[in-house]
Each structure stands twice: as structure tokens, then as C-alpha cells.
Amino acid sequence: MTGDSCDLLCLDLPQAEEIRAGLPPLPAVETAAVGARALGDPTRLTIAAALASGHELCVCDIAWVVGHAQNLVSHHLRQLKVAGLVASRRDGRMVMYALTSRGSALVAVVLGDSVPAEG
């Protein structure tokens, strides 16, 4: 055997077909990949962790917590929102951000034990 491939065709067809049939459909995999890519950036992951801890925050608070300029935080929040991981709502003159349920779940998986516990 050279590298990571078999020298012999040893396919267990019944098992392989069962696994193939149980795979999620391509649109679901593509959506999951978009979310995973969104959290692949350290700044976005830090913002998501802040939202996991603070539940709902305005851009000013997030910028202060993560130590970045508001315009940079806004840019990253837009990317998290496009990925379906963050939702926003207007509260007077402020825009409040929170993780979606999907965002919370993905942040918990990515950060593992490092994710803040929900209060």
C-alpha cells in the first residue's frame, strides 16, 4: 500500500450503500459548510462566542467585548447573518444581534468546553 489508498478493491457494498443512503442531501451539506466556513475566521468565532455568552448584544457592546472597531464587527456580523448563524432586530436606534439556534449549536460544537454556559 502506498500513501492512503488500498492496493486491493475490497468494497463492502451493502455497508457502503447503507452509509451512502444515510448521508444528508447535498443542500444540507452545503448549508452546513457555509456555517462552518463562517466560524472558521477567529474574529467571527470570537464574536459568536460573545453572543453565546451575552445572548443579545448591540454592535457597540460586541466591538468593546472583542476589542475590534465597530465597522469591522459590523462586517463580520453581516457575514454571520448571511450564513444563518446570527439574527438581528431593531430596538429604536440600536440593532441587536443574537445567535440563531443553528448558530448556537454550531458554536457549541466548534468551541466545545470553551463555550460559555447558558444562564
TrEMBL record:
- Record GO terms (molecular function): DNA binding; DNA-binding transcription factor activity
Task: Provide the coiled-coil residue spans.
Answer: none
- Look up the domain of life of the source: Bacteria
* Key words, A-Z: DNA-binding, Transcription, Transcription regulation
Ranges of residues in domain HTH arsR-type: 24-118
Q: InterPro entries attached here?
A: ArsR-like_HTH, HTH_ArsR_DNA-bd_dom, Metal_resp_trans_reg, WH-like_DNA-bd_sf, WH_DNA-bd_sf
The answer to whether keyword Transcription regulation applies is yes
What is the protein named? Transcriptional regulator
